[in-house]
Amino acid sequence: MSTTPRTPAGTPPAPGPADDDPQPPPVVVGADGSECGLRAVRWAAEEAVRRDAPLRIVHATPHLGHRGVAGSPAADLPRARGATAQAYTLARHTAPSVAVSTEVVPGEPVQALLHAAEDAQLVVLGITTTGAADEMVLASVAQKVAARSPRPVVVVPRSRPGGTGSRPHVAVLGLGDREDDEPVAVFAAEEALRAGRPLLVLHTRADDGGAWAADSSRWAERWPDLRATHSPVPGPTGGRVLAAACPTPLMSMSAGHGGLLHRPLDGLHRWLLRHCTSPMAFVPPVHRLTGEEPREEIIAVG
User: Which of 270, 273, 272, 275 lies closest to 300, judged by CA?
Assistant: First the structure.
């Protein structure tokens, strides 16, 4: 249920496709009014340009519609509208050609974003962690959405000094079941091609000799215009992955199987969320895309 206009009052509508052209699914970004949230909005607007897609800005307000509790609707609604208006302005300045809409949704952020993801092609979220263990409580929304989303989720960390220059995009393979490498490879290759960047493929599984993803010639056949290089990262730890990958414009990997037994994400993923200073894309594993339950033998203590 939307409680704000699709665009803030007094702003002209963004240009969009002709009425008889089907509109592609939107890029969805969560906006909470924070600096990190606005950084995610900027990244999402730029990504919407690359995908030629509309941008949908979502702000969830748990207390909206509930009376007699702290954070009443009388206070929450203006605050929410202010946050979405600020995000809308930033998105329009960043990507004037993109059709932008805003929505204030009553309810918890995780559920609101998962619901929005159903009709999206990508979900983008900001994250504030800097490596301190106690800061992971601030990342709970990003963890839970990435662990359960039916669409890829890009988590954008707070701004760091310096840039990525000509550094490649990165695909990390081997962090899920073998079949999970396929959607990660496809997502990472398409992202690199859209951005005009090379791709570095990190192989973390030692026994992938017979898999297509370990064969550079197979990559060249599938994506002849992609400049891809391959590197092994045996015995992957968070530190080894970051040393091999970062800084990078985007690091893509399987979201793993953290949704099982209500774990927010697998241990390596949680560590990377705490320490990675580059945007990270979590691609849903195959079992989530097909609606099947993950196999029991993959359960591990985080």
Answer: 270
- The encoded tokens of residue 109 equal 């952020």
Interatomic CA distance for residues 144 and 127, integer angstroms: 12
Residue 116's contacts (CB-CB under 8 Å, 6 or more residues apart) are 28, 56, 58, 103, 105, 123
pLDDT digits (tens, 9 = 90+) for 39-98: 999 999 999 999 999 999 999 988 665 554 444 555 577 888 889 999 999 999 999 999
Q: Render 192-223 in DSSP notation, one character per residue.
A: HHHHT--EEEEE--TT-TTSGGG-HHHHHHH-
| Distance in angstroms (rounded) separating the CA atoms of residues 261 and 125 | 24
Spell out the residues 6+ positions from residue 150 whose beta carbon is closer than 8 angstroms to its own: 117, 118, 284, 288, 289
- Cα angle 165-167-172, degrees, rounded to a multiple of 5: 150
Q: Which residues contact 98 (CB under 8 A, 6 or more apart)?
A: 14, 45, 48, 49, 53, 54, 55, 91, 92
- Percent pLDDT > 70 in the chain is 75
Cα 170 from chain centroid? Answer: 14
Strand order in the sheet with 122-126: 100-106, 55-61, 27-30, 122-126, 153-156, 280-283, 251-254, 169-173, 199-203, 228-232
> Do residues 95 and 1 lie in contact, with contact meaning Cβ atoms separated by under 8 Å?
no
H or E, element range at 36: helix 35-51
pTM, rounded to two decimals? 0.83
Q: How far apart are CA 28 and CA 44, in angstroms?
A: 8
Residue 15 burial class via C-beta count within 10 angstroms: exposed 0-12, middle 13-18, buried 19 and up: exposed
Element (H, E) at 188: helix 181-195
* Residue bearing tokens 């959607």: 183
